[in-house]
Design goal:
By secondary structure, this protein is an alpha+beta fold. 27% of the residues lie in helices and 27% in strands. The strands form 9 sheets. The chain has an 8-stranded mixed β-sheet. Helix 6 (387-395) packs parallel to helix 7. Residues 275-449 form the VWFA domain.
Amino acid sequence: MLRIKRDFSGFSQQVEQQCVPLKQVSVEAYIKSFAADVTIKQIFRNGETKPIEAIYCFPIEEQAAIYSFVARIDEREIVAHLKEKKEAQREYIDALQQGHGAYLLEQDEKSQDTFVINVGALPAGKECHISISYVSELDLVQNGSKIRFVIPTTIAPRYNPDKGGISAPSGTTSKYVQTTPYTVEFHCRVTKANVSRVSSSSHPIKIDLAQEDVYVIEFAQQSTHLDRDILIDIELVNNHPNTIVAVEPGAVMASFTPTEEDCQRAMNNTEMTNEFIFVVDCSGSMEDENKIGLVREAMLLFLKSLPVNCHFNIIRFGSNHQALFSKITAIYNEENAQKAEQLTKQLKADLGGTELLQPLQWLEKHSPRQGRARQIFLLTDGEILNVNEVIDLCRSMTNSTRIFSFGLGHSPSRSLVKGLARATNGRFVFIPPNTSVDVHVGEQLQKALQFCITDIKVKWNLATDVTSAPTKMPPVYANDRLIAYALANDSTFVFNHNSSVELHTDENRLGEAKIDCIPQVSNNGTIARLAAKALILELQHSKLPSSIGQNHSGSLQSRFQHNQPSTIPTVDEKETTKKRIIELSLKYQILSPHTAFIGVEKRVNASNADMVLREVPIQISADDEHLLGSQQMMNFSAPMMACYAVSPPAFRASMKQSNFSMDCACFNASGASRSSSMFNSSMYDECCMPELLADSDLYNDESNSNAMDLCASPQYLIVQEKTESWPIDDQDIVRYLISRQKFNGLWDLDAKDIEQLTGKSLPNFLSFNNNQQIVIAAIVIVALETRFATLSTMWHAVVQKARKHLLELLNKDANQLQSLLERIRQEF
């Protein structure tokens, strides 16, 4: 892959160190079962001669319940109190005007995963230590086999559609920079119960196994920058329990993970025609870290896996949006499948900004036909500012539409990706750089092709009155985890040994957990805080009436409008929701978008008249470095964009005339680049053309050899029409087989392919059936189901499609199909 090296020789440290008051960030976490208790520590130091007001914007997971904010300066400790946001802001301002010190922690109301810390009037030469503590649920991923712990570290530059460009977060003027003087330390303890392995796909880590009850995890290297989220994957033992119960005085948590059998019973074999609409981010921010390459991989697997005769469309979006088909959907047939594959191979990050609202508004105006269910697959890095507006729109589509959202890159907007899925009963997944996209796509597609369990009810048998949180259970899929909380009206109530909780739908009982030994008793308030946070999130994401796209059944005459019920949310409805959020926040002492932590440090005979503002710069993630040009900190965007439109000779010439140098980076087996990149080779196919590679003055000999290796890389098994050599790695073989499947489920393979796959010649199998296409399809099915069973998430949908078509070709004789597959299986 050709990688552009930017020449920063004329670009010194973007922000002088004496102007950056934040010196160090550390993260301490304790993970037990379903939750994490995290403390983030930040050290601010004023190295200037005047007092400063330090402002720092940083991310925390949206579902985090922040319960503590403490500042330490000299020998004093200031424990902040939680108050309504406006009251806290007034107290902060008043304290500074009176010459005191003040410390304020706020959550952004527009982007729920963005927080702002304000350190007011830090005296010259002084140091302040900030501690922020929170608890958070952990996501269950990869069909329930792993728990994923995420610490977001940077806020991606967000596109503001009102300004048509990038805006600083939370109304500040904070700058994005390539490198900052502050770094992060990480220390995490994970309880060993039901855990088989701990790993990280984001950072090198070292694990201390010597402790009896916990694994201790730290970074393996010093001076780690905050340029990517911290990801810790905790693999569970195979026989981990389906139901978990945790108890503390006044609160109970029950976790339920349904099996495929549970879902099948709840679905009652109902069938419905699906529409599949792929909304693909092609904005400029998608070009780095191979994000657009991941999209191409994902789209190819999606297209190969679609059921025949379903309806689909592909919508590219950036500053504008473009649909593959002019109508809202087109039938999935051979001709349309070819058009879609051709578009997929040519996808580029060339549409400018990130106007996600527009394509979603177009879809909202064109509801699916009666009897159809719409599944929207959104692939984006989520770098937008109007998150709430987008989510509010999607809530109006929940009766007919589910959104399956993919967050790509080092720092996607987690509140957007999660919020869209939650608001529409869909699912979300985050795909960091340098990982394989296939498994994630396969999982999401399986979810989209199955019905989820809805209308779940919880019956608490606890011998006291409780509030269930959330009040309405969200839908759940097979191997997903559903967490329900109960808050006793008496917060000191202790549950007895006869307590239990039941989960059921109107027609089926899903599970029961009995509290027969009072397991995992805790007294630190974790469960109550998580329950209150669940109630707050439910209120934030609750569906208020919307006037967008509504079909009024009454008269259309304007003179009658005052007699018809309004569908626009009233001020009273919004204020009632806000008031309830504030009440929950203050009662359980957890931060919300409408409350803030405020701490005041009383000072005697002090003045803040000469105080100066210092906004801590935000280190940009590795996949967003190209956006630094928007702040006029460097100017490499013009030659970069020119590369898309020129021929290879012109491309070489433009590179020679600029301050860019070029080398190559090969891909690993998963198809992800081993190094950070400005371009990816599958985006610019000409990069591997001999005339470009022959121009050796553009790169050194080592890079040249890497470039030649790239042309034969397994990554291209998905992108190219056909390769000369048979792949070796199992995942690459599966990718190759998927890429060779026709739209109807059969395979475009020849005798040489079959011999490579089975070790036997094709004629050995033709005695089983005289139709060569049937035999080849059956061989591939058996190969995938036997040799590549561990990769079933990747190939499940394509095999289902192939089986269905074979059954049709065999006159729906299931016994004949089973016999054919069994005879071929015996040959393996």
